[in-house]
Amino acid sequence: MSKSEQQYLDLCRDVLQNGNRKEDRTGTGTLSLFGRQMRFDLSEGFPMLTTKRVPFGLVASEMLWFLKGDTNIRYLLEHNNNIWNEWAFKRWVESDEYTGPDMTDFGRRSLVDEAFAELYHEQMTLFKQRVLEDSAFAEMYGELGDVYGRQWRAWKTSLGETIDQIGDVIEMIKKTPDSRRLIVSAWNPEDVPSMALPPCHTMFQFYVADGKLSCQLYQR
């Protein structure tokens, strides 16, 4: 077993044994510990877990989606990626245009009600097909608001301009690698209310030393 995976397993054990029980918006609740950190040396290989299934294709397509600055699930669906479907689906079923079965609280109900789960999957399938086939519908209901891609590639300023944080940080790494400003932030307090889901990985900072690039990520 790799050192990187052992870190993950040790953290899981620590959370299970010592975690604080917290309530959350889903009603499920969590166990959590604050401020833990893991370190991965990529020169030793990519830290892929083997103790749970990791669909790397979905990880890659989601990251490319972020880097494109895209905020619409259509690209993800074109790459068979369903990670963000529920957030867009919620907007659709809560709209005045939706006339199908009642989908209130579909996430929880689909877990406990088999008949409802079948209805939900039928409606989700129809929704995904329409996003893929109907550009106008996709533009309206496939959109997730000012999520990661928008903040990374087109952060809105008070002057009505935009900032390409990814493009800027790449140029700084090339030209001023000793800078302490090699930072990209997705947490834009003004835009958080308009996001389908506020960013989990809120910011990251790069560091260059001895010809090597490091990155530190803060996860809320």
Automatic annotation (TrEMBL):
Residue intervals of the Thymidylate synthase/dCMP hydroxymethylase domain: 6-220
The protein's name: Thymidylate synthase
Active-site residue list: 200
Keywords from the named record: Cytoplasm, Methyltransferase, Nucleotide biosynthesis, Transferase
An annotated GO BP: methylation
Keyword Methyltransferase: yes
PROSITE patterns in UniProt: THYMIDYLATE_SYNTHASE
Cross-referenced InterPro entries: Thymidate_synth/dCMP_Mease, Thymidate_synth/dCMP_Mease_dom, Thymidate_synth/dCMP_Mease_sf, Thymidylate_synthase, Thymidylate_synthase_AS
Enzyme Commission no: 2.1.1.45
One Pfam family here: Thymidylat_synt
Any one of the GO CC terms: cytosol
A GO molecular function held by the record: thymidylate synthase activity
Superkingdom of origin: Bacteria
